[in-house]
Amino acid sequence: MNPVTKFLYELQEVTFLTWRVLVGIKRGPRYVRETIDQMDEIGVGSLVIIILTGFFTGGVLILQAYPTLAYYGAQTQAGQGVATTLVRELGPVLTALMVAGRVGSAISAELGSMVVSQQIDAMRALGTSPVRKLVTPRVVALILTMPLLTVASDIFGLIGGGLVAKQIYGLDTGVYTSGVRNGIDIDDVIGGFIKPLVFGVIIGLIACHKGLSTSGGTVGVGKSTTSAVVSASISVIIADFFLSKMLQTLFKTTLF
Amino acid sequence: MNDSIMGLAEHLLGADQPIEPALDDAVDDQHRTVAAIEFKDVELAFDDVVVLDKVSFRVRRGETKIVLGGSGTGKSTIINLVLGLLKPDAGRVIIDGEDITEYDEPEMMHVRKKIGMVFQEGALFDSLSVYENVAYRLHEEGVDEDQVEHEVRRMLRFVNLEDAIDKMPIELSGGMRRRVGIARALVGSPSIVLFDEPTAGLDPPTARTICELAIKLRDLEDVSSIFVTHEMNNLEYLSSEYAVVDEQGNVEFETEGQRLCLINTEVIMLRDGKIAFSGKDEQLRMSNDAYIHRFIRGK
């Protein structure tokens, strides 16, 4: 199968999966317990790495940007720069990439192992739809937890930036906080919620699709896991570009 | 089912309430004329590889059809077609008089309720305990927990594994996993049970135990089944022994001809996607076909 045909085939399969998830959400049965378990696994389980990622990203942003801003005498804008960059772009994208790595791989490996050990067939034989039982709760859990994780990442990023600004460059906390307030408006907050929602759908559907289409035994599980992380990460970055453009058009904003 | 079999079933499953015949005799007779499973000229290919080529057979009620054949001859494919996990390219698949060939997934979910499936490695859900595995179907149907526990214990007693009720699948041996798989398949009293190489990789005594369970289902529960295997020992057990209950209520296995003649077990052998043989085990053993001869004797 050539790459174009393969891409179109994968796109078709993910579209079918999306449709079945939507039908599952509408018609039920709804697996609330499984969804809550997945939210715990995805949300609470990812919190530490998301906080660390956000904190140090905010820190390094100030570390790199502050000298340049100071050169132009614009060091008071440091908080604004970090806030805008984090809330609009880095917060959602880095959170999505971390979740794609941690959760996407786990989902794909788990479902892939279930495929090769015939547990998915067993589930169908026992009269349960694997899409409704396994895919829908994971996708819904990702949709619900991604915005929350992104907010955590943003907040700790701003804290990290503030600490670096204060401790290394001696920027007054009030100046930094004032810059942060100026850097964020309601459009950024809305955009900061829309992006993680879309990223959650992308990661969930790609990871579940890759897991459920696993073939070739344990080697196949490894391949589908790698493929899930790579495909989800690339899709997140591509989607981010188009979402940013769409949000810019919608809210008539620019980066600064 | 006649009275003795009904009594036997109650004894084996430990039911508190007597099992009432669902239909009167006349309706039951009429019901029995409909094949439990029927394949009509079924064809299936994966790309250029023909897996099944105009395969036709019937499994009567209470009959065990042993499907023999080497690896890659389409044995497991037959089971996947019965379950609707695969769709044939041509031909019809009929379950309990119902043509399921064109059924979509939601319609198949309804059909699968009357089918139990025993997978090669058990296919137990790793994240669930033995209790939760066996109770899976009942939990999905929202059955009351007291009733679920009663049913699960009854099924685990049937496979002689009640002590393992709280264990996780990882703690079980291969044979125990298969037996839990059988218990899980029997929840809901399916009229059809499919065995996909359930003894593969097991030691002979454990394999014998699995076959005994299949014999009990056939002779005491009136279950129709397809038993996919490539092991001749399984053929020997299933086609030469039957289960009866002695005066003390214990299940015993007798050899064909000792008191009864076994008429509810037949064999089909697949070769290159086609049925190379269909009939009784005695006929199979007497066949002059070189492939069958080699398959039976290994040389």
Q: How would you describe this protein?
A:
The complex is a heterodimer of chains A (256) and B (299). Chain A is an all-alpha fold. Chain A is built from eight helices and no strands. The longest helix of chain A has 40 residues, at 32-71. The termini of chain A are far apart. With 299 residues, chain B is α/β, with parallel strands linked by helices. Chain B has one domain (3-297): P-loop containing nucleotide triphosphate hydrolases (Rossmann fold, 3-Layer(aba) Sandwich), CATH 3.40.50.300. Chain B is built from twelve helices and twelve strands. In chain B, the strands form three sheets. A six-stranded mixed beta sheet of chain B has the order 6-7-8-3-11-12, with helices on both faces. In chain B, strand 7, helix 9 and strand 8 (224-228) form a beta-alpha-beta unit. In chain B, helix 7 (145-158) packs across helix 8 and helix 9 (204-220) runs parallel beside helix 10 (232-240). Chain A binds chain B through residues 29, 113, 117-119, 121-129, and chain B through 80, 83, 85, 105, 109-110, 112-113, 115, 117, 119-121, 123-126, 136-137, 140, 184.
Count of helical regions of chain A: 8
Give the oligomeric state.
heterodimer
Q: Report the count of strand segments of chain A.
A: 0
Strand content range of chain B: 15-25%
What's the CATH C level of chain B? Alpha Beta
Main beta-sheet strand count, sense and barrel state of chain B:
6 strands, mixed
The major beta sheet of chain A can be summarized as: none
Distance between the termini of chain A: 46 Å
Biggest interface, residues from each chain = A-B, 14 and 21 residues
Q: Roughly how much helix do the residues of chain B carry, as a percent range?
A: 25-40%
